[in-house]
Write a structure and sequence with these properties.
This protein has a five-stranded parallel beta sheet with strand order 5-4-3-6-18. A five-stranded parallel beta sheet has the order 8-16-9-10-11. The radius of gyration is 23 Å and the shape is globular. The chain has three domains: about 110 residues, Alpha-helical ferredoxin (Fumarate Reductase Iron-sulfur Protein, Chain B, domain 2); about 160 residues, FAD/NAD(P)-binding domain, CATH 3.50.50.60; about 150 residues, 3-Layer(bba) Sandwich (FAD/NAD(P)-binding domain). The N and C termini lie far apart (about 50 Å). By secondary structure, the protein is α/β, with parallel strands linked by helices. α14 links the parallel β9 and β10. α4 crosses α8 and α6 packs antiparallel against α8. Helices cover about 35% and strands about 20% of the residues. It is built from 18 helices and 18 strands.
């Protein structure tokens, strides 16, 4: 009989005062005993509501049952049957809004720690991998543009079906936002590299330093024998506010700031990548990227880090766990504040952020209460670095070099219910379609696209 304890099994973490000055992983994960204890809290609901909240359809009750029995290898194989990146998802998925948000346990207590259990299984099997089973080749070739969450998922699912898949990645390292965007303390890059290696062992080819639209066009990929193309190139073009002073020295987009740290290792003393040594940092925005930038700035030695957000703490879109960790580490949240200008000194360097106080009015189209400026409330926030974490949009390179590839007003690719773009045989998913969103939603789009590509190619036969 399942353990009826309403309490989620606690997990060890680095002390906030210690971790705020290093880039080591914050959450340390379950032990085997803790994982089995937590798994026994699962009620194995008949209707499986948790699965309804999972964009990649992990068979959650099945793998948790295996964990409760101590059969961690079997649990891992169940996860891997639908999820190509379990060690990643266990760490960065917003489980509170997805699988755990649907868990019946959460009605009167705490939901089962589904994400932590998924992470445990992946970590347990990290050094116990067996040779991957490769299906018989089906004779068809598919190109995938972008080695981020959606591209890797699409490639992995197609490889399982026997396709010859080549992934073309613009950067020198595969992983997309997993490599350049999410900091080491949330997602160690060795974990990402291991997941990519798993896909290679399953037959996926990955070519780095390949900027499609420059090296080859999409049409040229067809000429090279690929029968379908999936675009998972993400959304790497940063947004700014359009206020005075955004061109001053010391103003970063969060995209650039995090890429310098994560992909180019600026946080390591033995790497030459330059990054500003800040004393007081203001991060503008309230999402997960803002949390990552703020917590990274702290670890780079900033004495004070502020998160400036125009709504209240209740409206923050970032994961609760990330906000909790940021508060623990000493980051100050200036909510109901909005920047109006960046102020520079005589040498063109940031010295302050001019802000105005806000109040919440009626709900807008997103359902959240609209922030409205409070007249006469302007003030200056002393800082030497400003990081804009306001979201991103897709790079225009592909749409500008591919006739017949239509986008919306934000530059996001238009797709139908099968993830096919307006150009036949070209599919797309993830942030290049939705704009900046979550890793797991991008993976869900990649999975759906793989199914559609399979149906498309079989239909042509």
């Amino acid at each position: 009989m399942a353990d009826m304890s309403p309490k989620k099994t606690s997990v060890a973490e680095q002390d906030p005062k210690v971790r705020a000055r290093n880039f080591d992983e914050v959450t340390l994960g379950y032990t085997a005993e803790q994982a089995m204890q937590e798994a026994k809290r699962c009620l194995n609901c008949k209707n499986r509501p948790c699965m309804q909240g999972c964009p990649v359809g992990v068979r959650i009750p099945e793998f948790i049952e295996k964990v409760s029995e101590g059969d961690f290898a079997a649990a891992y194989e169940i996860i891997r049957s639908t999820n190509s990146l379990p060690a990643v998802c266990g760490r960065v998925c917003p489980q509170e809004n997805q699988c755990e948000g649907k868990c019946v346990r959460g009605i009167k207590g705490e939901p089962v720690g589904i994400g932590r259990l998924e992470r445990f299984c992946a970590d347990f099997m990290a050094d116990k991998k067996t040779e991957a089973d490769r299906p018989e080749p089906n004779g068809h070739r598919v190109a995938v543009i972008g080695a981020g969450p959606s591209g890797l998922t699409c490639a992995g699912d197609l490889a399982k079906l026997g396709y010859d898949v080549t992934v073309f990645e613009a950067f020198h390292t595969a992983g997309g936002v997993l490599s350049y965007g999410i900091p080491e303390f949330r997602l160690p890059k060795a974990i990402v590299a291991a997941e990519v290696e798993n896909l290679k062992e399953a037959g996926v080819k990955i070519m780095t330093d390949m900027v499609i639209g420059k090296v080859f066009s999409i049409d040229e990929l067809y000429e090279k024998g690929f029968e379908a193309v999936f675009i998972g190139s993400g959304a790497g073009l940063p947004r700014f506010m359009g206020i005075d002073g955004e061109n001053l020295v010391g103003v970063y987009s969060a995209n650039e700031y995090l890429t310098r740290i994560n992909l180019m290792k600026a946080y390591k003393d033995d790497h030459p990548t330059p990054i500003r040594k800040s004393r007081r940092v203001a991060v503008v925005g309230g999402g997960n990227v803002a949390m990552d930038a703020a917590r990274s700035a702290l670890r780079l030695g900033a004495e004070k880090v502020y998160v400036v957000y125009r709504r209240s703490m209740e409206e923050l879109p970032a994961r609760k766990e990330e906000v909790h960790h940021a508060v623990e580490e000493g980051i100050e949240f200036l909510t109901l504040r909005n920047p109006t200008a960046v102020i520079g000194d005589d040498e063109g360097r940031v010295k302050a952020l001019e802000c105005i106080e806000m109040k919440l009015g009626e709900p807008d189209e997103s359902g959240r209460r609209r922030p409205e400026a409070v007249e006469g409330s302007a003030f200056e926030l002393e800082c030497d670095t400003v990081i804009m974490a306001l979201g991103t949009s897709p790079n225009p390179l592909l749409r500008s070099t591919t006739p017949g590839l239509d986008t919306d007003r934000r530059g996001c690719l238009l797709v139908d219910e099968n993830e096919m773009t307006t150009k036949e045989g070209v599919f797309a998913g993830g942030d290049t379609v939705t704009g900046a969103a979550t890793v797991i939603l991008a993976m869900g789009a990649g999975k759906k696209a793989a199914q559609s590509i399979d149906a498309y190619i079989k239909g042509k036969e």
